[in-house]
Amino acid sequence: MYAAPDRMHKPDNQLVDLVFDYMRERLQYDPVPLDHPGDGTHLREALAGLLNDHGNHPADVLKLYDHELSRAVISADSPRYLSFIPCAPTKAALLFDMVVSCASLQGISWLEAAGAIAAENQVLRLIADRAGLPASAGGTFVSGGSAGNLSALVVARDTARRRLGAGPGARLRIAVADQVHSSVKNTFNIIGVEAFPVPAVDRRLTGPALRAALAADPHPETVIAVVGTAGTTNEGIVDDLAGIAEVAREHDLWFHVDGAYGGAGLFAPSVRERYNGIEHADSFVVDPHKWLFAPFDCAALLYREPRLARAVHTQDASYLDVLHTEGDEWNPTDYAYHLTRRARGLPLWFSLAVHGVQAYTDAIEAGLSLARATARLIRDTDHLELLHDPQLSAVCFRRKGWTHDDYYRWSRQLLADQVGFVTPTGWDGETVARFAFLHPGTTMEMVREILDTMR
Fold first, then answer.
1. Which tens digit of pLDDT belongs to each residue from 210-242?
2. In the chain, how long is the greatest CA-to-CA distance?
3. Of 112, 183, 329, 441, whose CB count within 10 A is highest?
4. Is the pTM of this model over 0.85?
5. 33 preceded by cis ω (within 30°)?
6. How far apart, in whole angstroms, are the C-alpha atoms of residue 377 and residue 381?
């Protein structure tokens, strides 16, 4: 028997050395390889019998992970990972994520984790300042944009219910355009509100379109909120946040901004003006595990008036009464639907403190510059067609003459050859190609290599 109950929680120097050696090797990959999707039958055979009564030698388990499991995972931190929205955590953030995990922080309350929460709040303040939110703004770190959107829109719903004197069965609607993230649509199903669709103008939700839609609706009083997007996932388009904010004020609508991917552009002077109007948001989400170079899973959720979130999310139980005291109390559990949470903002805090904010600005600008250069290259290539000028770091384009099947064959071959991970996407019902630039290590040479395979 390798581990007995009286040994499982005692230091095992051999195990520590094995894991540290593996992590040191992984952190030194330059560049990180893409690797491949896994074969289910092979993985089941590799794992068969591993979880047994007597345990296994740690070297054998780590070898299994290294040789089988880790190589059946497409690495989102590879500079050749250009699908979906990549992840490119700094080495400092990854290392400090290990520190946080070793500390076993219970990050729900000031009582239990004041030091960690103070550091997390310092980062939230930095983001709030970039957005132009008032000094009163605050919030918490949650697992991702989906959790942030859900938590914020629950506050929007319940705040409206109190204002309108509406019961649980009252019809409530939230205005969105068709490019809104899928998590927002899913949130509506969870919290029992309806979408109020607003026609997009040049693929954006605009203030005039929202105003016209409200004027044309027979029951505009049932519309309680509007969701603007600061960087659509597919195309990187920023909505007319200033115009939306103006209409939201006119109609007393909660204004939520989903910047899960694109909100990091607030740190980039070259595109900062696109976000004008975000300073009027009632709630705002940005995912540092995307374009702010933090490890999974890390999303910053901010409220203009945190007291409104506390009124909705504070959990009431006798065993939690001790958490609610006077003074410096800031309990992250009061600002989202969670209770238990890891202090997931600390790796970002550490990396920002080590590298400085300017390094983050430079890295974000690098992705923006790469997108613009790629757009120029596509525009100048006869058999390719650019579908839109990039606003942020996503570039959608077509290969003239290709069908749906051509794009998928090309994508599979790219990955098989380890040239790139570039999955097709949709554009008005048509299958096209898309790059998502985020990793500072992605180069134009890599882009040209990928585009050359489309001849």
1. 999 999 999 999 999 999 999 999 999 999 999
2. 73
3. 183
4. yes
5. no
6. 6
